[in-house]
Amino acid sequence: MTLSVAVAAVTFDRPRELAVLLNAINNQTASVRSICLVDSGTVPAQDVARAHENVDYVRSEANLGGAGGFSLAILKAVATGAEWIWMMDDDAEPADPECLATLVREAEARDLEAVVPLVVAPGHPDRLSFFFRLDGKVTHDRAEVEKIGFLPDDGHFFNGALIRSDVFFKVGLPDMRLFIRGDEVDFTIRLRKAGIRFGTVTTTAITHPHAFSETKHVYGARWHVIVPESAFKRYFYYRNRGYLIRRHFRIKSFVADVGGYLGYFLQRGDLRGLADWFGAFSAGLRGKGFGPLKDQKF
Length: 298
Prior knowledge:
Elements: E1 5-11, H1 15-26, E2 34-39, H2 46-50, E3 55-59, H3 65-79, E4 84-89, E5 93-94, H4 99-109, E6 114-121, E7 124-134, E8 137-141, H5 142-146, E9 150-152, E10 162-164, H6 165-171, H7 183-193, E11 198-207, E12 215-217, E13 224-226, H8 231-248, H9 251-267, H10 271-285
Parallel strand pairs: 1-2, 1-4, 2-3, 6-11
Antiparallel strand pairs: 4-10, 5-11, 6-7, 6-10, 7-8, 9-11, 12-13
Helix pairs in contact: 8-10, 9-10
């Protein structure tokens, strides 16, 4: 199999996880042309990168967030002339040495422009780190999703996503204004609007830390909200949800968020939490609250 793949990876103060990831990438049965690594951490990870000759290390003194880091890494990867770009966060790891080869084979067989693996929880290979919605209900059960075989127009970007280089010329790069949380949702919506052929294959996987505790059911199994654990992540998640509703005119999401978060916080008597959600969410709806990280207040 002749491949032309470059990896676009980001890292932030996870040297041990990064070392595991780089080793896993270079132990794939399908080789990669280069690993374009953007490091925005407080402690440079250059020593980890030097252990691999094919790592193109880019040090960013500014914290670009996931969205900005991926944008820079993608540009570097596309500039290599590779046909495919393989996206990786530093705390992800291909589940087996055949992961990349499987993704390329599935993409070519299904005539896809982007293909995404399943994302499973470390130490819990039967559990998906991020849920899928099947028949109106959310599930983290890997076996239940595997039975479907292929999920068209659905996937969890950017962990392990394999994307044709020319797709970025059609839909653009991740929006660095979103910093973290929501940049992958925005990118997925843009893929759909542009008519890009993509989906999730269930025949391969990567591992990535799960977010089980963030999913809060409000009115039963069919209605839930996401509540990140830290104030930092909650602000960006709530703000970006509001912004994406505004940008893409997502009426169903607006109803789901307003009803869901009102119910969640009022059921718990958490008026402070409700106020924090409303402040960040409404800022996003108005297109406000964006700017350098140093200007954000938490």
